[in-house]
Amino acid sequence: MAGARSAAVSGRRDAERGATPGRRFGALAPVLGLYLLAALFGLLVARKLPWSGDTGVHLAVIEQFGRNLHDPPDPMTGVAEPGNVYYSPFTLLQALAFRFGGLDPWTIFRICAVADALLVASGMHHFVRRLSRVPAAPLCALAAVVLVYGTQLLTWSGVYGLASLGLTLYYPSTFALGITLHLWGVLAYALGGGRGWWPYPVAAVLGADVLLDHQFTALGAGFGAIALLLAHLRQLTLRRGLALAGAAVGAAALVAAWPYFSVTSLLGGTGALDAIHRPLYRNIFDVYGLGLLIGVPALALRFLRRRTDPLVLLAALTAVPVCYGLLTGSYAWGRAWPMLLLAGQVAAGIELATALTTGRRPVRVFAGTLAAMVLVVGGWTQAGVLAYLARVPAPIAARMQIKHSWGDYRWLTRHLRPGTRILAGTYHAQRMAPAYRIYPVASVYPEPWLPGDQRRRTDETAMLDPATPPAQRSALLHRYRVRWLVAYPSQAARLRAAGMRLTPVAHSPRYPRDGLYRIG
Q1: Is pTM, for the whole model, over 0.70?
Q2: Do residues 371 and 477 share a domain?
Q3: Where are the transmembrane segments (predicted)?
C-alpha cells in the first residue's frame, strides 16, 4: 500500500513537471481570481463603510473594551456586570489596536473588512481543496455562497450573501466564518491521513476561537466537524481518535479559561432571542429559494456517489435545528439557516467547477448556461453593494434592493457627555447612541446573559408608556438616574399629556423626528 501511494505521488509530481505553462496558468488563474476578488470586495467595503444594523454595537464594544481591558461594562447599557458575550478574542484584538495602536474604531473596521474578506477566501480555498482537486472549485463555491440566496434580500449578522457581508464584513460573525472554514480544512487534512500532530492543537485553538467569537457560527462549525468525523470514520485509528479527543478537551479548556464571559451563561437563553429572529422564517422560498434550488440537487448527486459525504452530512445536521425552530417557534435556531445553505452552495460550486473542467462539451455548455442564469438572478438580488462603488442612477436604484448607510448620530454628543443615560424611544437612538457611550436604559437586543436584562426592558417600556402612573414613572426615572429623553414629537406629546415635564433641547439634523428633551 505504501509503495502504491508513493508511486501515485511520484506520478502526480511527474505530471506537474510536465504540465505546459498554459495549463499551469489555467490552474493558477482561478486561485488568483479568488483572492483578488476577495481583496477587491474588502477594499470596496473599507472605502465606504456603511453604518447599519449592529455597527453601533460593535463601535461601543471597541470603545468600552479598549478603555476597560480588565473589567469592561456592558457596551449597550454601560451596566457594570461581570461577563459579556461581546468581549471575544476578535474584539480583544480590536480593543488592543484601539488602546495601544492609536487607531480609531473606523480605521480598525477598515482593516478588519479587508482582513476578513481574505480570511474567508483563504478558508474556502483551504476547505474546498480537501474535497476537490479542481482548481476552480473554491472560486465557484465562494461565488455560489455569496451570490445564490434568494430573490428577497436578507441582511443579517452571520448571513453570507454579498449584500449582507457588505454590512457585516468587519463583524465577529464574518471572522468566525473564515476561522470555521480553516478549522474544517485542518480537520479534513488530519482525518484524511495527514501527517504530523500539528493539526490537533491548531484545531483546538480554532474551535475555541469560533465558539468564543460567534456562538451561532460555532453551532455550524461543530456540525461540520462532526460531519467530517463521520465521513472519515472508517479511517479513524486509535491514535487519531485520541488526538481528536485531546483537541476537543484542549478547546474546552481554552473556552473555560476565557476571562470575559462564560459560555455556560448562554445555555437556555435562546427563548429571549426568538422574537427578533422570527424574520428568518418569513418568506422562506423568497429568501433562501435559489440556494435550495441549486443546493438540494448538488447534495443529492454527492449522496448517490457517497452516503457519508461531509457536505451531505453537514446539511442533514444543520437541518435539525432549522426544522426544530420552525416547528416549535424557537426562531433563534433559524441562525443555522446560513450553514444549511452553505453546505448545498459549496456542493453546487464544486459540481459546477468539475463539470466545466472535466465534462464533455454538451455538459460544459449546459452547466455554464444554467450557472450563468442562476448567478444573474441571485447576483441581481445582491447588486445593491454596487452603491459602495459609485452612485447608482435613480431609475436603476429604484429597482435594486439597496441597504443604505444610516450616517452618524454624533449630534447627541454636542449636548450629552459620555456616560449619560437616556430614555431612548426612537429606532436610531436605541441602536446608535451607545457608540458614543450614551446609554439607553435597556439594550435594543435581548442580553440573556446580563442579570436584570428583562427587568430593565420592562422598566424602559413602562417609562415610555403614557398609561404608566406618574408616580411610578418618576420612581423609575430616579432609579435609573435618567434626565434625558430621545423621542419622536408625537411620542413626546403623549408623555407630556400624561404629566411628564419635557423641555425640547435639540433635534437630529439627519433624522429630524429624533428629538432630545430634558426631563423635569
Answers
A1: yes
A2: no
A3: 27-46, 134-156, 168-191, 211-230, 242-261, 287-304, 311-333, 365-390
